[in-house]
Specification:
By secondary structure, the protein is mainly beta. The protein is built from one helix and eight strands. It starts with a helix and ends with a strand.
Length: 119
């Protein structure tokens, strides 16, 4: 049984394909600003909201077990008093890219409270 559990941990789809890496507010390494944990409106059980007008940030450093090419997405929840724009930086180990997500460009489709944005 332990051998099977170890195989599924390293290859959860059991086909050798690249797996998804889900990172959420519980995985933050560095946070600056005045953030509050909320339990509604997000993709996972909690999300962090910042109502301050001051610059704020959160840094995530996910554990990447397999060196592969990954597509990065950001879940944008539609909430009251949301920022006009979010500034996101992604570092792949060699190069940093920056993205600006304008709230007016996010189109929520279906009955969800947010949308996945391809960075």
């Amino acid at each position: 049984m332990e051998i099977l559990q170890e195989k599924l941990k390293n290859d959860p789809l059991a086909n050798g394909s690249v797996t998804e890496i889900l990172v959420d507010d519980a995985d933050i390494k560095i946070i600056t600003g005045d953030w509050k944990k909320e339990t509604t409106g997000g993709y996972e059980p909690t999300l962090l909201l910042n109502n301050s007008k001051q610059p704020s940030g959160a840094r995530f450093e996910p554990e990447i077990k397999k060196k592969e090419r990954y597509q990065v997405y950001f879940y944008y929840p539609r909430i009251q008093n949301e920022a006009d724009a979010l500034y996101i930086k992604v570092y792949n180990g060699r190069k940093q890219t920056s993205e600006i997500i304008q709230s007016r460009d996010i189109k929520i489709v279906g009955q969800t409270s947010g949308e996945w944005v391809n960075l």
